[in-house]
């Protein structure tokens, strides 16, 4: 069953990574004085867990909404799909944040 | 074993427009119900409500005596062929078949002349007709009690339309099927019961005169 969720997750994940890195680059001029590699990565990961996932889901909602019937036929509702997808993102992001913080 | 789906008191409005008014529909194993109606009459809306993916304030859906609010969440209940292509385009045909818990090498797919040539092809590389054929076949092969097919013949070549009709008849032995299509001749050919959505209500059709009476086909 996890395979079906991973398909949705990878689609959202790609958009999210792109959006998060882009957002971090856009923020460089705004955080000019305090910007370090560490701050850049933390910004990326924080956006990845918040705005990035929202953008990824919205992108799917706007351009791939017909695919929801693929998941419905497998017994997966949209809310469940988004929640599990968010969980996968958190599972990736939290360890990354800890690594950046402690290393 | 015979399964029974009974839907009652279904109402749906979009803004001020009342599309469905107090619909009653009964489908049981062996039924192939041809659901007809003009564009915008609410055929797809009704099927989505029955499937549980379109919200409405008023509905009462009972399957084998069990009240269900969103039947699609209960495994083995309903398969739904959406009128739009719904398969993720970056996946291969083989992967899609596996995700539907079906066997690409089994009798249904392994001996299929159309699909056996494109197993390792991504959905994005298939023609519209091939995608529709795959979707229809996946849904028809689902182990469910009921199937809702919204425009199953759309974009399919005449040779494959006959194949699909044959598959629908075969699957109706174990399933109840509701189908709708703009090509009413195909619907009339394959269905064994006919209904028409007219002015928000559902009417049962019994003869060609009924189709003419409700303005679905011309007199001549």
Uncertain runs of chain A: none
The general outline of chain A is elongated
Quick check: average pLDDT of chain A?
Answer: 92
Spatial gap, N to C terminus of chain B:
43 Å
Principal-axis shape of chain B: globular
Name of the CATH superfamily of chain B = P-loop containing nucleotide triphosphate hydrolases
Query: Class by helix and strand content of chain B?
Result: alpha/beta
Secondary structure tally: strands of chain A: 0
End-to-end distance of chain A: 36 Å
Task: Give helix % range of chain B.
Answer: 25-40%
DSSP E strands of chain B, number: 10
Q: SS-based structural class of chain A?
A: mainly alpha
Summarize the largest interface: chains and residue counts: A-B, 15 and 21 residues
Q: Measured on Cα atoms, how large is the radius of gyration of chain A?
A: 15 Å
Description of the molecule:
The complex is a heterodimer of chains A (103) and B (220). Helices cover 81% and strands 0% of the residues of chain A. Chain A has 103 residues and is an all-alpha fold. Chain A is elongated. With 220 residues, chain B is α/β, with parallel strands linked by helices. Chain B has a single domain (4-213), classed as Rossmann fold (3-Layer(aba) Sandwich). Helices cover 27% and strands 28% of the residues of chain B. Chain B has 7 helices and 10 strands. In chain B, the strands form 2 sheets. In chain B, strands 6-7-8-3-9-10 form a 6-stranded mixed β-sheet, sandwiched between helices. In chain B, strands 2-1-4-5 form a 4-stranded antiparallel β-sheet, with helices on one face. The longest helix of chain B is centred in the last third of the chain and has 14 residues, at 158-171. Chain A binds chain B through residues 3-4, 7, 11, 64, 66-70, 72-75, 77, and chain B through 51, 53, 70, 72-75, 79-80, 82, 84-88, 90-91, 99-100, 139, 142.
